[in-house]
Each structure stands twice: as structure tokens, then as C-alpha cells.
Amino acid sequence: MRIRTATPADADEMVQVRTASWRAAYDGLVGADVLAGLPEEASERYVRYLARKRPLETELVAEKGPYVIGFAAFTFDRDEADEDTAGPGVPGEVQAIYVHPDHWSRGAGRALMNEGVRWLAEQGFAPVRVWMMEGSAISRRFYERYGFELDGARKTVELSGATIPCERLTLKTGAA
In this protein, which residues make up the domain named N-acetyltransferase (predicted)? Predict the structure, then answer.
């Protein structure tokens, strides 16, 4: 397995990974209509997203052979700063991390997280935080094994007309 920077050419496979991951992990937590609508127009959106140059973000993919089996995005905590105020001392954020369910529990998620946490540390972004869909036992187990713990912060996000409750976890000092 290899971890590398994502490119616009990875967009289709990233959408496939995200869609499969959401359908496996969030079935019962979000409506079937939300899960069914995931891949619509997503590839074009990912191509545009990956083509933009953003110095305060990194997008990574995990490859096994010629296939993308996972991806992750890391940046500054967007609830605490913006591109003009982000810098050393601002918390970092795991913006997204998805691994195709066929590759769960085989090291791709940990490898992506290791590289992303390393990158966040290089930028001076600390502590590292992640928002997780409330009730997602699969996500919570992954994050807690990595060294994250719930910190009490909560918010809701809107996705395809659905209101999704989320809770925040923070990486314990010295974890990972």
C-alpha cells in the first residue's frame, strides 16, 4: 500500500470509496435517499476541489496496486479560523477520511491518519480534531483506537436536506 497526494485524476475512485464507505457505515443513521444520492455530480466536484491549490490543506489517497482504496483530507479547524487567520497554534482538523469497506481493518485508515497528522504537525496545527456523525459506532471505534477522545463539542450539519448530529473528538497528546 502506498500513501500519496491526491490528484484530479483520482476523483472518480475517491467518489466510489466515499459512496461505499458511507453506505456501509451510515446505513440506519441517515436516510436511504441521502445514501442513494451520494454519487450524483460528486466526481466533477472532486475534480474541481483537487485542482485548486490550497496551501493550508492536504488531500491524500491510499493505493493498493493501481486502485485507490481510501482517501483523507486535513486542514486547519474551520470552526476556529479561516485562510487569513490559520497558522501555528490553530487546531488541525481531519476534514474527511474514508476507506472502502473491502479494506477496513487492514491498515489503510491508520496509514492515511499517520501521514495527515504528521502534515498537520508540520503546519503547527494542534491539537487535532475530527467531527464524527453521532451514533456511528464504526467511526468512533476507529478514532478511539487511533487515540481520539470525545471532547463534548456537538453541532449539526445539513446534507441533502437531512440534519445530521455530529460530535467532535480530539487527539490525545502523545497518541498516534
Answer: 1-170
C-alpha to C-alpha distances, 54 to 39, 49, 69, 160, nearest whole angstrom: 24, 9, 24, 26
Cβ neighbour number for residue 175 with a 10 Å cutoff: 15
Can you name the residues that pair with 171 across neighbouring β-strands? 148
Nearby residues of 138 by Cβ (< 8 Å), 6 or more positions away: 24, 25, 104
Ordered domains of the chain (ranges, CATH) = 2-127 (3.40.630.30)
What would the grid cell of residue 144 be?
Answer: 478511539
Q: What pTM was estimated for this model as a whole?
A: 0.90
Residue 159 CA to residue 30 CA, distance in Å, equals: 9
Name the residue among 133, 165, 171, 123 with its Cα closest to residue 151: 171
Question: What gap in Å lies between CA 41 and CA 154, rounded to an integer?
Answer: 29
Spatial contact of 132 and 157, defined as CB atoms under 8 Å apart: no
